[in-house]
Every structure is written in structure tokens, then in C-alpha cells.
Design goal:
The complex is a heterodimer. By secondary structure, chain A is α+β, with helices and mostly antiparallel strands. Chain A is built from ten helices and eleven strands. Chain B contains 31 helices and 35 strands. In chain B, 46% of the residues are buried. The chains are: A alpha+beta, B alpha+beta.
């Protein structure tokens, strides 16, 4: 090998078509191809198991530390006389929509306590719905009349709607008021939207116009004297959810809720989820380093880790009970079927 | 003038059998009829009659595309791929509201992919274009009026032009020989590029035109040639020449084919009859086909399958979407009011939910398009180009002597190399290096010559004897003489005089120096003599005689002069023998003889021939060494050598006189059986011979050929040899390269049997053909019976078939039988096959067995075969470049095939297969997430990812890892690929088939 190499070096100076020698061009670069012997396999499984199970336990523990109160109120907020025709109740503008719910904190909820509304069976990810907005219009006053893609909520009485489209039109408009021990709790609705949305997607000089004044009223109305960049509830709503069951941030309670405190919620139950059978839930939740309440990650880690350990143990058993020599050519297919090749 | 007459005389003597008057008979009556309608106005291409005929020019094009056809043709090529058609439709649809993605993000990947592939096509075609330009701009002298000849480019030649071709030039088109620098208007032609044979062929012009030796003779020359239409048959030609209102028949004897070379003749004049595409060599070549590898075809099937899944997924989605849409509005009540189902477009209209569902189906087809890997093809192209760079760079396939590395010319077929099942190989220049070497001889029952043949070396290696090393050392310090590889101190340098049978040795060497038809060429400067012979064997004999002290240096009309070593004085003496008769070699006679009168006045008949005909002609008193010689001959044959028996006889005056009279009469007779008559008479005198000995010539194999063939056989690859050579030669080579072995039973199918000879003579051509076919069929059936009945102990079969039989064997009703027999045989040799037949055999194997075929060859005669096979490998030897130009991969030596197939083929195949799997994996994994998401978006067609992320996923984000896998991955190192060649025969699995297992 070495001899050939040196001879090639000496002759390559003259003008020949001889390929230059290099380990790369000759495909002789040293390579490592680990052979999965039982030892390696068992070792890797044990390591994975040993790492994953504690990680899973820690994650699960963190998730358990989150205090979460979920209250489904769509059915409970219907007066008994309307319980047969909930749709009539919600569509009738004359009925009293106010509804009082009482929640119990089981543990201490440290501030900030996040308030979410959770909708169910609501397809914010429907293609027609997702496309029904105009980002140009939302961003700049210049493009106020740009209502492409917004049909059928593009114009009203010949004037273009700002913000146009089905998403804005169907803005969620239930509202919540909180009191603990008959004392009103302040709810902050600032800084609930993405910073980038406020700065780069919704214009500070764009004001709502002709909004919700058509024949069919969809969801909430907007204060036409506040620019879109400040309408955080709208911004949150306009960031459409990927799945039909979703939570959106409503606001924050900036004070602790003590354990066993009874929280009274006064709900303006305006939003129609009854026609499509969707649920409405109010969620109060604290956060930890792992985020909100989510056991999945911890369970996944523990399952995979457990599986690895199980496999490691089974392989050890197999290896002990039925050992077989490594690299035995007798196991190669052409040796198992000697008739397979005739030379 | 005297010199001219002398030349005339001696050629008519040497070619005693071949010269004679031609007459109108048989096929010539067809002239003017259908298929024989061509009319050529010689020397008058501008005339009105000629311009009416409007024959095509001499411009040739081997490129796939022209400027005008590039776009339509290249695009068509691209959209032959079903996936590309799909993406095109998607791209068009993406401009409608149906599309889930933006139009640009849909079109751009397609443009990138198609653009890259077409760019590659342009590059490849450009290389061919450059070669075309070179050929078309070669120059030749053309008569331009007033008896003056001027240089014109080949491309500007027209039918009817009279051209002057000089020594060692290629003929620019198919020509009719009008005259040459020889008085008798003969010329020598080398047709290596056409049929791979290196011997010179003799062509002779008609007497009527043979006297035009000067340029000025052509000033007023006018003739009309009527002949057959352009066709692919190299060995037939029918036509007539009308000169001064006289009709003369034209035969292949006057036809000079394009791409053959004028040799040994100062110049010739010829009339152009076929140009450009009409020439026989181009008629023989089929256009460059676009080859596609099997893996690629398999890949297409997988893509079809994915299409099935795509349609199914879309269909399911559409049903759910249709149901959900219809329910949105019932009795005027809106369900999902936020979608405004009361005021919507056709795409979401609950009142016409069925229409919406159908439209959604189209949307879904585009949405799930990521199941189909758009960049798969372009990634594969890139990978293959990189793989070919590795092939080109491989030092193990670089041939120092000719400074030629391997070159993958089309990168399409790299992985196909790993699947080769049958190799169809040319012989001359491919297996052999196309030179004969005198290596051994047996004189007076003693064997001389210590040279070791390739076959012996291969055998020794198999037995593990240390013979090999000794030999290689010995070889190095020997000054090599082309055609001579003889090493024996007992008779070299004149020491033969001390051997026991010195007189026999003297006669033996003298015979070698005299009994031939070679011409000496004396180098003016150093006085060295080289020989121009009709076949390389003959050259080897004369060279051997020269090296052993009997230097043949002059040939005149009646004499042959030789420098001889005088055994008594030990000095060189000049001896001259008067040459009386030459009894030519023919394949039926299998011998040649000369009759000479020595200076002492004794009449000698010197004869050399095949053992099968020579031993029966020995005299009772001439069999002294018969036993030993036979033994030696068998040894030589086992060593893969071609043997000839040498014998002589002294004639008495009376016998010779009678013979000469009869022979001259026979030669001069005009009857059709003139040749047979002459043969018969020659037969009478070639008897009662006295055996001198035997020669053994090695048709020198290229280095490492037997080992390579062995290795390929181990890997389960079959080798067929298709050659233009004689059957005997082909069989010899078969032995030499260990394709045939002792103990193999040979099934020989030949049309050169005596019965078929008589059949051919008969007037009724169709009956003769039918009878011949019946005989071939019969032989095939017998062979098949042998094959069916054979058991292991009798040894494997080898099939040897000649060209004429092959013609019948390839006919539709017989070819299945032929193929069955051929597949059953361990080795197959087809001899005397024309380029077209080679291509036909290749096609037969390819289509009927659906296995991957690889054709390997070096001459223009192999072009058809190379193009027909799944992979064409050209040997970039010393000869023309035609084979290389039409090959897919060019290598310098046959033995590199081993590395090409077993290492690169294996790697490329595995790489491409795993890369394709990887590709489908990543796309299916990706495509299905889109589908799963739809289930959560009520199948509305909303993609889960951003448009640009989607379109770049394939083209950019995930392409590098796959390409890296396709270029660099090695399951086993090159060393193990070669060592464990046998895993190539493992049972085919889904995709990776060979050498996928290795001991852990």
C-alpha cells in the first residue's frame, strides 16, 4: 500500500490523467461502524433507562405542582327555562346573559394566576377561517381598504370593514369578573398577546371601522377609538389555534389565591358555542418551570425509560440462557442455504 | 512501369484463389427494383439528376439533442417521469384557489428540480457534440473539377463525389473503389472499427476503372452507379456501374466502408455512394437510447404506490369534508356559524356539498403531495454524478501504460453495475490485447519454449504453486519484441545447430520464413524489418523465424529471399527461393502451402495447417515424431495456445509439372466452381508430407483476464463472448481465458458443415435458407436434449455458435429455444457475429431473461451491443474511440471490470437503494403528519406547516444527509467486497440484494 502511494506521488508531477491519490478520492477514509454486540446494546438500554426515568419523575412532579381550576360553564349558565333551546337563549339579545359561578381553590395559587377560556369543537384551523383575514390591512392604515380573502366579512354597506374577515368577526366576547370573599379582584388584560404581534402585525394607527355593523353580528365588538395594536384580546384571538380544542389567555390575576378560598366569577355568557355543540370552560392556572399542567411529558419519559430497562433485562436473560458465538459465518444466509450458490 | 507490372504479377499469385472475374448473376438482377433503387452520378454531384435524388449529406450527429429539439425533447424526457407530471399539474393548479399553498412555493421546487436535471443533460450532450465537430471537420481530398483534388471537410461530402484517400486515413463515407496506387487497383483495408478484426482485407476495383492512377484522369470521368438502398449489412453489397454505356457488376469487393482505414496502399480513388446516416456503419448503430436503471424503474413503481396512498387519503378526507360541510347548514340554521356557511363559495358550499367534496379532493391531492419526493430524482442525479467522480478517481482502475483512468460517461447506471447478471463481451481488444505471440514450438518431437501462458499462470495460481513469482521476475529483464515471447537457450542465438535434430530444426525455421503471404517492410534508417501480414498469427511466425535466425527480407514476383544461418559455417547467408505456387488458406482447407524451388534446384512443398487436417496427410515415413508432437499439441492446447502443424515434402519435377498445369487451368476456368476445382487439385499434391513439428502462438490475453473471469463467475455473473472471429480462434480464447475448461462438453452449432455448403450452392435461395434453418433447429434441439439429460458428473456444457446459425437462431420462432439452451450452458461463445447480431443477442438476453446485461467491447462493431445492453462498457484501448463514445462507462482494461462491478457496483447499488429508502421514509413520515393534522382540522385542507417550510423541506432542509448517505456510505470495505464476491448470488430481496450480509 505504501509503496504504491509513493510511486504515485513521484509520477503525478508530469502531465498525466492519473488520478491524484488521496484517502478521500480512493474512498479509503477510516470509518467507524459500531457493531451492535449484546454488551453495547444492553449497556445503551440501561443508560437510557437510568436517565429517562428520573427525568420523567421530575417532570411529572413539576406538573403536579401546577394548581389548575377548570370550570365548564356553557350549560350551567343557561337558565332552566331555556335548557331545551339553548340556541334561542344565546341568540336572543334581550335575555340576561349574566351568570355567577363559584370556584374553590384547593391549594394556594401563587400570583400570577392565569385566566384562560377554553373552547371545544371550534375549528379555528378550518382553511376557510384561517385564510379569512388580511394582514396588510391589520398592519397599516394605507391598506385599510384591502379586504382580499375577507369575504363574506369584507365590506358592510359598501364600506370596507376593519378588521375584516371571519376571524375578527367571530371574536370571543364572554367576559369574566372575579371576586374573592366579596372583594373584587383586579384582572390585568395587558401583555397577554405576543410582543411581536403587537409590534409587527397589528398597526398602532389602524382603528376598527364598520366593525360588527352588518346584518349578522358574529362575536364581540371593538372600541373604535383604540388602535388594533392595543386590542390585545383581538390579537390573541387572531392568532388562530391549531387544534379544535384550545385555550386562549384572557388575563392575569396579579394576587395570590389562598387555599380553600372561594372565587366567585361573574360571567357575561355572550358567545355562541351552542349551535355547533362546543363547550366553554374557564381555566385558572398557575405555572411552574414546566409550564402549565401537563403530565404527558413525564409519563412519556417514564414509559420509554421503563421499556428500555425491561429490554435490557430481557436481553441479559436471553444472553445468559442462550448464548451464541459472535461472528459465526454459519449464520450467513448463503451458508444456511448451501444450495443457493453454485460455483 | 516495370515496377508496376511486378507488383501486379505477385499479387495475382499470392491471392490465387480470390481473384477472378465477376459476372452478373443472382442478386444483380434485383437492381432497380424495390430496395435497390439508389442511383449515384459519379463525379457529378451537382448535376440536375443528382440534385433531384436529394441524398442526405455526410454530416453526422451522435448527440441526443439539437438546439431546436432540446427543449421539447428534454422536457419530454423529464415528464416521462410520472412524479414530474404530477408536480407539473400541481404547479398549474396552484394558481387557482384550490391550492392549499401559495403558487410560488409550489412552482419553485419544480423549476429547480427540472432545471438541474436539464442542465446535466446539456453538459453530457455537449461532450458528444465536441466529438461530432471533430469528426465532421476532418478533411479529405475531393475532386473539384478539371482533374484537381482539394481538401474538403467530411461534412461537405456529397453522394457522387470522387475522393482521394491516402495511406492510414479513414474513409469518410462508404465508397466504391475506382482505382488505387497499385496497378491492379487493389488496396488493403483495416476494419478494426467495424468488426474488430485487425487483419488487412483486400479490396479490388473493377478492371474498367483500374487504370486511373492520376488526379487528371478524373477530369472527364462520368459513371452511374445503381445499387441497393442503405442497409445495415456489412458483408453484402449489390450494385452496378455504368461506364461508357457498359454495365459492370459491383460486389462487396469494391466497397470501402466508412470508419475503416486504408493501409499499406499509398492512395485510392473512390466514388461516394452512401453518406452520413446512410453509411453501413451508421445503419448498424442504433441511436443513443436513454437508458434507465432498474432501481429507477422500481422506484417508479413505489411512486405509483404512493400515488395510490395519496389518492386514498384524499378520498377519505373528501368524504369527511363533504359530510362536515353539508351539516354546517341545515334548515337555514348554521352550525359552525363562524364559517358563514350561508354566504360562501363553491369550495365550502353546504348546499352543494358534493361539489365541494370533489373540489376538496383536488386540493387534498396537492396538500398531501409531500408523500411524493419531488427532489428524489434530482438528488439521485447529484448522488450519481458524485459517485461517478469516485469511479473516475479510482487509482485501481487507472491504466498506466495508456494513461487512461476509468470514465463513467453517463452517471445514470452506477447502481446497475451492482446487479449485473450477464456480461456480453467482445473478444478482440477486450479479452485479448490483440497481438499474437510466438511462445512455443515442438520440433522433431522436442518441445521448445519456456514462456508461460496466461492460462498456465492462472492454473498454477489455482493450484497455489509458486510458479507465478518466478515467471514475473523472469519477464522483466527481457527486451520485449512484439509478437515474440519465446525463450529457450537451446535454439536461440543459433545454438540450435548443436541440437540432436538440427536438420529438422533448420527445415522448420525455413518453413516459417517462407510459407506465408506477409510483406516485408524495411526501415530505411536502421535496416530493421517489420512485416505487414494479413493476420497477426502470420506476423508472429515471420517474426519468430527472424528472431531465430531466418530473416525473411524480400519478396519479389517469383522469389522469397531469406537471410539464413548456415549450420556449417555459422554465418549468415542470403538464400533466395523461387516461389512457384501459393495454395491459400481458407477456413475449409485449414492449411496453406507454398511450392518453392530452392537454390539447389529441389522442389519443396511447404505446408502448415491445423492438426485435424495435417496428420492425415503425412507420409508413412514422415510420421517419425507424430506421437510426441501430438502430445505436445495437446499440452499447448491446454495452455490455451493456437497450434499449427508444419510439414514439408520434396516434389519431383514430373509430379509438379502435372500439378501446375492442372492448377493453372483450374484457376483460369470461368465456371462457378472454380475455387473448388483448384482446391481439389491442391488437395492432390498436399499429401505424403513429412512432419517437422508444431508451433504454438498465444493470442495474448490482457493482464488478469482469467482471474477476473474467475472472480466474476464466483460472483454468479455469466459471461458470453460475442466475437467476429473464426470459431477455432474463439474456442482457443475461450480456453485461454478459462471460460472453457477441459472436461466441459461443447455444443457446437455451426452452418459451416459440408451439407450446408452444398445447400448454399443451390440456386433456390429460399429453400436453402429453410434447410439451413432446419439444420440449426435440429442442432439446437439436440443441444437442448443434452442439456436436459445432463447430470453433474458429465461436466458443464459450453455453447458455441457461429454467425450464420445465429441468424436463424435469432428468428422469432427459434430464439426461445436458443435462449433456453444458452442460459443452461455455463459458457456461451458466438463467433463470426456481425455488430447487428451482437446487438440482437444482447436484446434477446435482456428482454427474455429480464436480467441486467452488461456489454463490453472496444470497437465500432460493438457499438450496437453497447447501446442495447443495460450497461455498455467501452474499453478505451489504442483503437478508435467509437465504442468509448457510445459506452456508458469506459475502462482501459478488461480486468478493471472486476473492481467496477464488485466494488463500485456493489457500493453504488447499496447506496442508491438505501438512499431511496431513506427518501421515501422521510417523505412518508412528513406527508402523514399533514394527513393526521387534517383529522383535527375537519379535513378542510389547511396545511399544518408554513408554505415555505414545506417546499424547502425536500429541496433544501433534508437533502444533504440523504446525499451524504448516497455518496459515502460503505457497508464493507473494498477489500472485503472483492474477497467475498460470492454474496452476490444471495437471493434477491426487496431492494438491497448483494453482499448485504457479512460476518459480524
Amino acid at each position: 500500500m505504501k509503496g504504491r502511494r509513493s510511486s504515485s506521488d513521484s509520477s503525478s508531477s508530469s502531465k498525466t490523467k492519473k488520478p491524484q491519490y488521496s484517502k478521500f478520492t480512493q474512498q479509503e477514509l477510516s470509518a467507524c461502524k459500531p457493531i451492535l454486540t449484546p454488551g453495547y446494546v444492553i449497556g445503551i438500554f440501561i443508560i437510557v433507562g437510568v436517565i429517562f426515568i428520573p427525568v420523567g419523575i421530575i417532570s411529572l412532579f413539576a406538573s403536579e405542582n401546577v394548581v389548575e381550576i377548570v370550570d365548564r360553564y356553557d350549560e350551567g349558565c343557561i337558565p332552566p327555562n331555556y335548557s331545551d333551546d339553548m340556541l334561542a337563549y344565546i341568540q336572543n339579545s334581550d335575555t340576561n346573559k349574566t351568570c355567577t359561578r363559584s370556584l374553590k381553590a384547593t391549594k394556594l395559587m401563587k400570583s400570577p394566576v392565569y385566566i384562560y377560556y377554553q373552547l371545544d369543537n371550534f375549528y379555528q384551523n378550518h382553511r376557510r377561517y384561517v385564510k379569512s383575514r388580511n394582514d396588510k390591512q391589520l398592519w397599516s392604515k394605507k391598506h385599510e381598504d384591502e379586504t382580499k380573502n375577507c369575504a363574506p366579512e369584507a365590506t358592510s354597506n359598501g364600506l370596507s370593514i376593519v378588521p375584516c374577515g371571519l376571524i375578527a368577526w367571530s371574536l370571543f366576547n364572554d367576559s369574566y369578573g372575579f371576586s374573592i370573599k366579596n372583594k373584587m379582584v383586579k384582572v390585568s388584560k395587558k401583555n397577554i398577546a405576543w410582543e411581536s404581534d403587537k409590534k409587527h402585525k397589528f398597526g398602532s394607527d389602524v382603528y376598527p371601522k364598520n366593525f360588527q355593523n352588518g346584518v349578522l353580528i358574529g362575536g364581540g365588538k371593538l372600541n373604535s377609538s383604540i388602535p388594533l395594536s392595543k386590542q390585545e384580546a383581538l390579537i390573541v384571538w387572531m392568532r388562530t389555534a391549531a387544534l379544535p380544542t384550545f385555550r386562549k389567555l384572557y388575563g392575569r390575576i396579579e394576587s395570590d389565591i389562598q387555599a380553600n378560598d372561594s372565587v366567585t366569577v361573574i360571567i357575561e355568557n355572550n358567545y355562541n358555542t351552542y349551535s355547533f355543540g362546543g363547550k366553554k370552560k374557564l381555566v385558572l392556572s398557575t405555572t411552574t418551570w414546566i409550564g402549565g399542567k401537563n403530565d404527558f411529558l413525564g409519563i412519556a419519559y417514564i414509559t420509554v425509560g421503563g421499556l428500555c430497562l425491561f429490554l435490557a433485562i430481557s436481553f441479559i436473560l436471553v444472553y445468559v440462557v442462550m448464548p451464541r458465538p459472535l461472528g459465526d459465518p454459519a449464520f450467513l444466509s448463503w451458508n444456511r442455504h448451501p444450495a443457493g450458490h453454485q460455483i | 512501369m516495370a515496377g508496376n507490372r511486378r507488383k501486379k504479377h505477385h499479387f495475382s499469385r499470392i491471392h490465387a484463389f480470390s481473384c477472378g472475374k465477376t459476372s452478373f448473376k443472382g442478386d444483380h438482377s434485383l437492381i432497380g427494383g424495390p430496395g435497390f433503387s439508389r442511383v449515384v452520378h459519379c463525379n457529378d454531384p451537382e448535376s440536375f439528376e443528382a440534385s433531384v435524388l436529394n441524398y442526405s449529406g455526410n454530416y453526422v450527429r451522435t448527440t441526443k439533442y439539437t438546439l431546436a429539439t432540446f427543449f421539447p425533447k428534454a422536457l419530454f424526457e423529464q415528464f416521462r417521469r410520472v412524479a414530474n407530471v404530477y408536480f407539473l399539474i400541481c404547479a398549474i393548479l396552484s394558481f387557482t384557489p384550490l391550492s392549499p399553498y401559495s403558487a410560488v412555493s409550489n412552482v419553485l421546487p419544480l423549476v429547480v428540480v427540472i432545471g438541474a436535471t436539464m442542465g446535466k443533460e446539456v453538459l453530457e450532450d455537449w461532450r458528444r457534440k465536441k466529438q461530432d465537430i471533430e469528426v465532421n471537420n476532418r478533411k479529405v481530398k475531393v475532386h473539384c473539377g478539371e482533374g484537381a483534388f482539394d481538401y474538403t471537410k467530411w461534412r461537405d461530402l456529397k453522394v457522387g463525389d470522387v475522393v482521394k484517400v491516402e495511406k492510414d486515413e479513414f474513409f469518410p463515407a462508404d465508397l466504391i473503389l475506382l482505382s488505387s496506387s497499385y496497378e491492379e487497383a487493389i488496396c488493403y483495408v483495416e476494419t478494426t472499427n467495424l468488426d474488430g478484426e485487425t487483419n488487412l482485407k483486400l479490396k479490388q476495383a473493377l478492371d474498367a476503372t483500374s487504370n486511373m492512377h492520376e488526379d487528371s484522369n478524373f477530369q472527364n470521368f462520368k459513371a452511374i452507379i445503381r445499387c441497393e438502398d442503405p442497409n445495415a449489412n456489412l458483408y453484402t453489397f449489390v450494385g452496378s456501374l455504368e461506364l461508357e454505356e457498359q454495365q459492370y457488376p459491383l460486389t462487396p469487393q469494391q466497397l470501402l466502408l466508412r470508419d475503416s482505414k486504408l493501409r499499406n496502399t499509398d492512395c485510392i480513388y473512390g466514388a461516394v455512394i452512401f453518406t452520413g446516416r446512410d453509411t453501413k456503419v451508421f445503419q448498424n448503430s442504433t441511436g443513443p437510447p436513454s437508458k434507465r436503471s432498474k432501481v429507477e424503474r422500481r422506484m417508479d413503481k413505489i411512486i405509483y404506490f404512493l400515488f395510490g396512498i395519496l389518492v386514498l387519503m384524499s378520498f377519505i378526507g373528501s368524504i369527511f369534508f363533504g359530510i362536515a360541510t353539508r351539516e354546517d347548514l341545515q334548515d337555514g340554521k348554521m352550525k359552525r356559524w363562524y364559517l358563514r356557511p350561508d354566504d360562501t363559495t363553491a369550495y365550502y358550499d353546504p348546499k352543494r356539498a358534493a361539489v365541494a367534496a370533489v373540489l376538496h379532493f383536488l386540493t387534498a391531492l396537492m396538500l398531501y403531495g409531500y408523500l411524493i419526493p419531488i427532489s428524489l430524482y434530482v438528488s439521485i442525479e447529484i448522488v450519481k454524478i458524485l459517485q461517478s467522480i469516485f469511479i473516475n478517481q479510482d487509482l485501481h482502475m487507472y491504466y498506466e501504460e495508456t494513461d487512461k483512468p476509468a470514465r463513467a460517461r453517463t452517471s445514470n447506471l452506477n447502481e446497475e453495475l451492482g446487479q449485473v447478471d450477464t456480461i456480453l463481451s467482445d473478444k478482440t481488444g477486450t479479452l485479448t490485447c490483440n497481438s499474437m505471440e510466438f511462445i512455443k514450438c515442438s520440433i522433431a518431437g522436442t518441445s521448445y519454449g519456456r514462456g508461460v501462458t496466461e492460462v498456465e499462470r492462472a492454473m498454477a495460481r489455482r493450484k497455489g504453486s509458486p510458479l507465478e513469482e518466478e515467471v514475473t521476475e523472469e519477464q522483466e529483464d527481457k527486451a520485449s519484441i512484439k509478437g515474440f515471447n519465446f525463450e529457450d537457450e537451446r535454439i536461440m542465438n543459433g545454438s540450435w545447430v548443436n541440437e540432436p535434430h538440427a536438420d529438422v530444426i533448420q527445415k522448420f525455421l525455413r518453413l516459417l520464413a517462407i510459407c506465408h503471404t506477409a510483406l516485408p517492410e524495411v526501415d530505411e534508417e536502421n535496416g530493421k524489418i517489420s512485416y505487414e501480414a494479413e493476420s497477426p498469427d502470420e506476423a508472429a511466425f515471420v517474426i519468430a523465424a527472424r528472431e531465430l535466425g531466418f530473416e525473411f527480407y524480400e519478396r519479389t514476383q517469383t522469389s522469397i529471399s531469406v537471410h539464413e544461418l548456415d549450420p556449417v559455417t555459422g554465418t549468415k547467408v542470403e538464400r533466395s527461393y523461387s516461389l512457384l505456387n501459393v495454395l491459400e488458406f481458407s477456413s475449409s482447407r485449414k492449411r496453406m502451402s507454398v511450392i518453392v524451388r530452392s537454390e539447389e534446384g529441389t522442389l519443396l512443398l511447404l505446408s502448415k495447417g491445423a492438426d485435424s487436417v495435417m496428420f492425415e496427410r503425412l507420409a508413412e515415413n514422415g510420421r517419425e515424431f507424430e506421437e510426441q508432437t501430438k502430445e505436445h499439441i495437446n499440452e499447448y492446447a491446454d495452455a490455451g495456445l493456437r497450434t499449427l502443424i508444419l510439414a514439408y515434402r520434396e516434389l519431383d519435377e514430373k509430379e509438379y509439372k502435372q500439378f501446375n498445369e492442372e492448377f493453372t487451368e483450374a484457376k483460369n476456368s470461368v465456371s462457378a466452381d472454380r475455387e473448388e476445382l483448384a482446391e481439389e487439385i491442391a488437395e492432390k499434391i498436399e499429401k505424403n508430407l513429412i512432419l517437422l513439428g508444431a508451433t504454438a502462438v498465444e493470442d495474448k490475453l490482457q493482464n488478469g483476464v482469467p482471474e477476473c473471469i474467475d472472480k466474476l463467475a464466483q460472483a454468479g455473473i455469466k459471461l458470453w463472448v460475442l466475437t467476429g472471429d473464426k470459431m477455432e480462434t474463439a474456442i482457443n480464447i475461450g480456453f485461454a481465458c478459462s471460460l472453457l475448461r477441459q472436461g466441459m462438453r461443447q455444443v457446437i452449432i455451426s452452418s459451416e458443415t459440408p451439407e450446408s455448403k452444398t445447400l448454399e450452392k443451390s440456386e433456390d435461395k429460399s429453400a436453402a435458407a429453410a434447410a439451413l434453418k432446419a439444420s440449426v433447429l435440429h442442432q439446437l434441439i439436440r443441444g437442448k436434449e443434452l442439456l436436459d439429460s445432463s447430470n453433474e458428473s458429465l461436466g458443464p456444457l459450453a455453447l458455441i455458435i457461429d454467425g450464420k446459425s445465429l441468424t436463424y437462431a435469432l428468428e422469432d420462432d427459434v430464439k426461445d429455444l436458443f435462449l433456453e439452451l444458452a442460459i443452461g450452458c455455463a459458457s456461451v461463445i458466438c463467433c463470426r457475429s456481425s455488430p447487428k447480431q451482437k446487438a440482437l443477442v444482447t436484446r434477446l438476453v435482456k428482454t427474455k431473461t429480464s436480467s441486467t446485461t452488461l456489454a463490453i467491447g472496444d470497437g465500432a462493431n460493438d457499438v450496437g451491443m453497447l447501446q442495447e445492453a443495460d450497461i455498455g462498457v467501452g474499453i478505451s484501448g489504442v483503437e478508435g474511440m467509437q465504442a468509448v463514445m457510445s459506452s456508458d462507462i469506459a475502462i482501459a482494461q478488461f480486468r478493471f471490470l472486476e473492481r467496477l462491478l464488485l466494488v463500485h457496483g456493489h457500493w453504488c447499488y447499496r447506496r442508491i437503494s438505501s438512499m431511496i429508502c431513506y427518501f421515501f421514509y422521510k417523505n412518508i413520515a412528513f406527508g402523514f403528519t399533514l394527513f393526521f393534522f387534517e383529522a383535527y382540522a375537519s379535513f378542510s385542507g389547511q396545511p399544518v406547516y408554513n408554505d415555505w417550510f414545506l417546499s424547502l423541506y425536500n429541496v433544501f432542509f433534508t437533502s444533504l444527509p440523504v446525499i451524504a448517505l448516497g455518496v459515502f456510505d460503505q457497508d464493507v470495505s473494498a477489500r472485503f467486497c472483492l474477497k467475498f464476491a460470492f454474496p452476490f448470488v444471495t437471493v434477491p430481496s426487496v431492494i438491497p440484494r448483494r453482499c448485504t450480509e457479512y460476518p459480524v
